[in-house]
Design goal:
Number of strands: 3
Radius of gyration: 15 Å
Distance between the termini: 28 Å
Shape: globular
Helix content: 55-70%
Strand order of the largest sheet: 1-3-2
Structural class: alpha+beta
Length: 115
């Protein structure tokens, strides 16, 4: 239910404002999306590596976000024909373009008081 309400919220922002920030949030504004991008900035990762890096996110949520980011052209998925099967996720050029955004959020977050 949360995914659907987030989607509709972002969609309403775009319809109402039509601005670029709202359009960007349609892609990376969902919970865990930017953190997944952050994990992929240093190179390809397997699902388990992403999952371990985000211990508070459940696997179903990570899978959903990866599929959404792949559909948006931010993440690419490569499945290798091996036993056991191996799948790697990496950023596309569109995803790598988010590095300055992630870096800016990291810098901004450092200035916030601790909770």
């Amino acid at each position: 239910m949360q995914i659907a309400s987030n989607f509709h919220y972002c969609k309403k922002l775009v319809e109402k404002h039509g601005n670029h920030v709202a359009r960007s949030l349609e892609v990376v504004g969902y919970k865990w999306a930017l953190l997944i991008v952050r994990e992929l900035l240093d190179g390809p990762r397997r699902f388990t590596e992403i999952s371990r890096a985000l211990p508070n996110a459940n696997q179903k949520m990570i899978s959903a976000r990866l599929r959404e980011l792949e559909a948006a052209g931010v993440v690419s998925r490569v499945a290798y024909a091996e036993v056991p099967p191996r799948v790697e996720y990496s950023l596309t050029s569109r995803g790598r373009a988010l590095r300055p955004v992630v870096d800016a959020l990291r810098s901004w977050g450092k200035s916030l008081p601790a909770r």
